[in-house]
Amino acid sequence: MADIRSPDLDRGDPRRQPVAPPSAAIKAEASSRVSALAKPLGALGRLEDLAVWWSACRGVCPADPPANVRAVVLAGDHGVTASGSSVSAYPREVTAAMVCAFVAGVAGVSVLARQHGVSVRVLDLGVDADLDGLPAEVSAYKIRRSSGAIDREDALSLTEVQQALAAGAVIAAEEIAAGADLLILGDMGIGNTTPAAALIAATWGVPATEVTGRGTGIDDQALVAKTALIQAALDRVGARAADPVQRLAALGSADLAAGVGFLVAAAQSRVPVLLDGVIALAEAAVAEDLAPGCVAWWAAGHRSTEPAQQLATDKLGLVPLLDLGLRLGEGSGAVAAVPLVRSAALLLSQMALLSDLA
Ligand SMILES: Cc1cc2ncn([C@H]3O[C@H](COP(=O)(O)O)[C@@H](O)[C@H]3O)c2cc1C
Ligand SMILES: O=C(O)c1cccnc1
């Protein structure tokens, strides 16, 4: 494994370290400028909020549009997909096959990312295979093979959670060092909508019936079984899940815990993130618990069909930009929203002020 020391997350317990917000002064300046543009007040709708958010995160008004957008896809397998389980419509072997597809640049998100000039880096945190034949750096941060089956056992040990949090922080630091001005977190892992929904349910204390979705497209019978499995996991863990690190150990996975570390580190480094679907929102839910204030550095790229994603965006006060019925993951909904961030930034910088006309 690569050296996973990180400046913030391995210095003892990362719990409840508040994150400083984007610049309040720039936010106020950007809000005034948006209102002064040559248009009726509010006429650019949510692009106005997006322009203000982007400016405040960049600390300058107006800010250049994102030029170095970098997506990281965290891959892992999940104990809940053991043979005989019906939580996913697809077998576990698809995870490793898709990692190869990301490396080859032929996954769904790869196509969108090429179109929008976004880099994509795939990393194996917990795939249940040795990815022989792929570049060694793909598995440089591997924590273990497949996380535990959360209805029966913990997903990870506490040591593995800390390793994964630190790995995620280092991965974010690497992307920032490569010049990222906007980050995207993608996911690949058959069965991952199950731990993601469980983490979201445990974060806000709601029952499995409110968070369980069809993921890759399971039928009614499988949906009943998946809901029961998630409820069994929540019941097994009980009050322990109130603590975000324990929650990750009990209900998460190596890839999800690394996503949490990535989000906390990005916010601590004052780099904004476009969130994607239910997996990114589960990571966001736990990250905000670990380091309150992170949410100010995020925008929601899209609304997924997964109920847990919708619940988490609502609870975090994020309004998704796109609503295309996407249910792919991989970071696809966030990458699809990148042109909106660019448009918002350009409107703020290139439109005339109403007072300059006539
Ligand atoms: C070919 C294929 C490509 C994918 N890309 C993302 N996912 C997404 O679907 C899976 C989550 O849904 P569930 O919990 O129902 O298994 C994850 O692999 C997620 O990344 C895919 C799934 C498949 C089958
Ligand atoms: O919400 C998502 O991103 C999602 C939904 C279904 C399957 N995989 C991901």
Automatic annotation (TrEMBL):
Which EC number(s) does UniProt give? 2.4.2.21
Q: What are the protein's UniProt keywords?
A: Cobalamin biosynthesis, Glycosyltransferase, Transferase
Gene3D superfamilies given in the database record:
1.10.1610.10, 3.40.50.10210
Q: In which pathway does it act?
A: Nucleoside biosynthesis; alpha-ribazole biosynthesis; alpha-ribazole from 5,6-dimethylbenzimidazole: step 1/2
Q: Which domain of life is it from?
A: Bacteria
Checking InterPro entries in the record gives: Nict_dMeBzImd_PRibTrfase (IPR003200), Nict_dMeBzImd_PRibTrfase_bact (IPR017846), Nict_dMeBzImd_PRibTrfase_N (IPR023195), Nict_dMeBzImd_PRibTrfase_sf (IPR036087)
**What's an example GO BP annotation here?**
cobalamin biosynthetic process
The segments labelled Disordered in the record are 1-25
- Biased region (Basic and acidic residues) positions are 1-16
Catalytic activities: 5,6-dimethylbenzimidazole + nicotinate beta-D-ribonucleotide = alpha-ribazole 5'-phosphate + nicotinate + H(+)
| One term of GO molecular function | nicotinate-nucleotide-dimethylbenzimidazole phosphoribosyltransferase activity
Query: What is known about what this protein does?
Result: Catalyzes the synthesis of alpha-ribazole-5'-phosphate from nicotinate mononucleotide (NAMN) and 5,6-dimethylbenzimidazole (DMB).
The record's PANTHER family line, in alphabetical order, gives: NICOTINATE-NUCLEOTIDE--DIMETHYLBENZIMIDAZOLE PHOSPHORIBOSYLTRANSFERASE
What family name appears in the similarity comment? Belongs to the CobT family.
Q: Protein name, please? A: Nicotinate-nucleotide--dimethylbenzimidazole phosphoribosyltransferase
Q: What is the lineage of its organism?
A: Bacteria, Bacillati, Actinomycetota, Actinomycetes, Propionibacteriales
Q: Its encoding gene is what? A: cobU
